[in-house]
UniProtKB/TrEMBL annotation:
Pfam family, one: zf-C2H2
UniProt GO cellular component terms: nucleus
Molecular function GO labels: zinc ion binding
Domain C2H2-type: 26-53, 129-156, 157-179
GO BP terms, alphabetized: regulation of gene expression
InterPro entries, alphabetized: Znf_C2H2_sf, Znf_C2H2_type
Organism listed in the record: Homarus americanus (American lobster)
Compartments, record wording: Nucleus
Protein name, UniProt field: Zinc finger protein 394-like 1
Length: 185
């Protein structure tokens, strides 16, 4: 997939009418979206090509734009910092320091993710919310509510671009990114 973007640029550089304030070379040939910068244009093209050149140094996560990688890492990778407060010390994985969860062993990129994950693991060890249908237990009420929809078939999250409906918001967001990228970018 890495080779498609340069080929796409060469093939479709000219031939689109000028748009006020937008260089014609930054107009997508697949959907017509105009971009004012090369960075935005390249980022947009990746929604069509599927190219994901930005890779997390710790886990298999890949993305098509730098800002998504930064969000995935919690804003920044905690490289070269000490962690204080009684938690497990950070250790180095492929040149980047990470925190292991003492309850499940998962490696976390940042202190804030470590703290929220640790709280989740502690609550998950003693779940307080049980499904009345199948008796599965959950640490958080919102997780139980989401689970109950698997029994009821309720899909309260509609896509505004097609007829699909979803049981949870995250599935709707994934659907929009995959099937309606021009509308969501």
């Amino acid at each position: 997939m890495m080779g498609l973007l340069p080929l796409h640029r060469r093939e479709y550089r000219v031939g689109f009418p000028a748009v006020s304030g937008v260089d014609p070379q930054y107009r997508c040939c697949w959907c017509g979206k105009a971009s004012t910068t090369r960075y935005d244009y390249d980022k947009h093209l990746r929604t069509h090509t599927g190219e994901k050149p930005f890779v997390c140094p710790i886990c298999p996560f890949r993305t098509g734009d730098r800002s998504s990688l930064s969000k995935h890492a919690g804003g920044s990778l905690d490289v070269g910092r000490d962690f204080r407060g009684g938690a497990n010390p950070m250790f180095v994985v492929e040149g980047v320091e990470v925190l292991p969860c003492p309850l499940c062993g998962r490696l976390l990129h940042t202190r804030s993710r470590f703290r929220s994950h640790l709280e989740y693991c502690r609550r998950a060890a003693n779940p307080q919310f049980a499904c009345q249908t199948c008796h599965k237990s959950f640490a958080y009420r919102k997780d139980l509510e989401k689970h109950v929809r698997t029994h009821t078939g309720e899909r309260p999250y509609p896509c505004h671009y097609c007829t699909y409906r979803f049981a949870d918001r995250s599935s709707l967001v994934k659907h929009r990114r995959r099937h309606h990228p021009a509308a969501t970018s």
